[in-house]
Amino acid sequence: MKSKFLLVLSLCIILILLDITGYSQISGIVFKDFNGDGQRQNTITRIEPGVENVSVTATLSSGVSFTTASDNAGNYSFSSGQIPSGSAVRIEFTIPASIPFLEFSQHGNSYGSGVQFITAPSNVVHCAMNIPKDYVSKDTVEYIFPQMYGQSFPDPSTSYHATESVLWKFK
């Protein structure tokens, strides 16, 4: 009977420890903010994908830091073993040199910053990013059109393949 009690007690302690350390204390998503609103849309009509390999550093008020990187879906996390509950934490996102032109989203009021200050626990420490060159604005003066066998706009009933691109400058 005593050994059965000790076995059950041991299993309960192990489950409690797994529960305490198994969940992330701080987590979030680094994502491409296509519409620049600072909020991640992930619906059937609009998907703003995660950005991988963004360095995320959590610094406690004591000066102790932990660093991780976002995965291929843009997710990152710090465990409760690293960040105690109730801790004031500075989260800093660093853009990797391997992704040229990536910038923090400038238009959102929620996640458009490389530095955020939070109190653990939190699972909504997100970072909105975009690549401005992916977008065309009204001030853009250069456009690239595919040249289709000498025709700029082919007959839609005929199948064409682009042979080269042509750069047009408008003033």
What does this structure look like?
Helices cover 12% and strands 32% of the residues. With 171 residues, it is mainly β. A hairpin with a 4-residue loop joins strand 2 (55-60) and strand 3 (65-69). Mean pLDDT is 75; it is low at 15-22 and 147-152.
Which labels suit this protein?
mainly beta, four-stranded mixed beta sheet, four-stranded antiparallel beta sheet, globular
Please write the string of helix (H) and strand (E) elements: HEEEEEEEEEE
Average pLDDT confidence is 75
Major sheet details: 4 strands, mixed
Question: DSSP helix count?
Answer: 1
Radius of gyration: 24 Å
Question: Judging from the principal axes of the Cα atoms, what is the shape?
Answer: globular
Beta content comes to 25-35%
Structural class determined from secondary elements: mainly beta
Q: Helical amount among residues, as a percent range?
A: 10-25%
Number of strands: 10
List segments where confidence is low: pLDDT < 50 over at least 5 consecutive residues. 15-22, 147-152
Query: What is the straight-line distance between the termini?
Result: 89 Å
As laid out across the biggest beta sheet, the strand order is: 4-1-8-6
